[in-house]
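Researcher: I'm preparing a figure for a lab meeting and need a structural model of a single chain. I don't have an experimental structure, so a prediction will have to do for now. The sequence is pasted below. Please return the structure as tokens so I can convert it later.
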Amino acid sequence: MTERLVLLGSKGGPAIRPGGPMPTSSLLEIGGRRIVVDCGLGVTKGLVDAGMPLKALDLVFITHLHSDHVLELGPLLHTAWTAGLSTPVKVFGPAGTEACWRGFCQALDFDIEIRIEDEGRPDIRALVAFDEFTEGPVMEESGLAVSALRVDHPPVTECYALRFAHGGRRIVFSADTAYFPPLADFAHGADILVHEAMLEAGVDRLIERTGNGERLKTHLMTAHTLATDAGRIAAAANVGRLVLHHLIPADDPEFGENHWREALRESWSGPLTIGRDGLSLTIQEKATEDARA
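Model: Understood. Here is the structure written out token by token.
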């Protein structure tokens, strides 16, 4: 298995628009494991398009319970089950993650029961196990070590950056967070830092399209990281590559890749990738962009 990172959905926020990108989710294939990080709307189709057999679903990590990170957790697991999943799946997430799944199963009780009886499928509820974590070590198995850092994403208090380490390679996901300097220590020396990013110039245009006025703007400015500050974190952490993810705005034609690069010009001079749906990075000693991306 080629070790790679695939951005399945690169947009910040739950809304989708015609022809635009999908909300946040990623696939990390490392150490022979297939790891889904966050389950925004579209994650299932994104995995299929990335060439991952759904019945090979292995590990799922949820950073926090905002809908653009967890909305399709239940549908992903259920669709993998209908695609032939028969081996256990482990889901890691903050407190409340399992309740999301149980609520989904209750809503789909008729379908689940009739498919078990009529199609001879194993009970999906017995295939999925949950581990609700807090800050610190999350799992260590077959050389894969995962750790979590609580980040600053008000008013959500249970939101965690994640670090995946295997064979000397380290991949860090910031999750949703305001500018949070302790993240630099957590990500120090990582091959790839996948960090959320926002363009201040795009916020007012986003508010005009979405509504909620000043309240939404206040949330965005206090709970998310400007692209320039994401560069500061990457520089302080001395990472091999910065990948901008969970982009705000991600679907405004007024803002292109040049705007993101300009925002990083003074804070980050290292390798930079601007996220987009389906973008794939190979994971090597120092990550390089896959020629197919």
